Amino acid sequence: MSALDRIEAIRAAAESAVSAAADTAALEDLRIAYLGRKAELPQLLRTVAELPPEERSAVGSAANAARQAITALIEARTAELAGAELDERLRSDRLDVTLPAAPACPLGHLHLITQTWRDIEDVFLGLGFSVAEGPESESVEYNFDSLNFTETHPARASSDTFYLEGGALLRTHTSPVQMRSMIGSPPPIYVIAPGRVYRPDNDATHTPQFHQVEGLAVDEGVTLADLKGTLLAFARAIFGGEREVQLRPSFFPFTEPSVEVDVSCFACSRGTLADGSRCPLCKGSGWLEILGAGMVDPNVLLAVGDERYDPERVSGFAFGMGIERIAMLRHGIPDLRLYFDNDLRFLAQFGAR
Fold it and tell me: What does the pLDDT average to over 24-52?
């Protein structure tokens, strides 16, 4: 059989096989069989130069024409079968979203941050406080000026505060709600202000967005002892009935005197575990820092601009805590970012209340 006859036979066999192919996988096998590197037709093309000169042109042209024809036929048949296969997959893979899940999805539950937020609210509502809210986009006046922050205070820097166009900012604490509450109501006033706050931090113990609860009490004769008693009741309700609190001197622009507040560690006995080892939660100190607080600075009361808040007539205390930190201490959570990773393995641990 001459080379031209062999080329014609290959072309006819390929056309017949391609037409009879049942699916795209079979077409791929045919493409390799007739057009692959080891197939007969490509091998013929490689040996054209070895033929007598008078046969080279005819054989080369016939081989190229056969290869192009087979290629075009495979592509056309592939497009035809691929469309049919897609239609079949769409028919067989239909998903009825109205059917129950298999297995049924469990009911959701409140996020741990929301649970802790509500637990804290419940404690202070039981102590006679009310819940106040304020905007997350704040003015410099309410966020800093009225709270006795000096013009050069580091918190005003753009590295510590998110500033917005027009001179506004994302509040760095919920303390502005305290000022808004005093402007709107005369004393006595007992409020807590939970909500989201924002600072340019991001690591295992800081996130750009987090949650705080600030508290304010202003009345006649309020003392530091009242603050300690209030926080002791809070600590025992949240961390356990045997807790104690201690106050350490500190500084905050809006309170004077200012204190850091610690609660006795609920995981050990004075810094030591039952097996005699050092407690990893409190690092052997026997105390856990939970919040900052203090007596309301007279300058803050004067900034209200209401004679009913005359610091000679009334006094008050204020405190602020991070909801994430309270939840971390209660549940031994090592990294703040776990709250926001949306990992169900983590979140599901806090579903049963």
Answer: 81
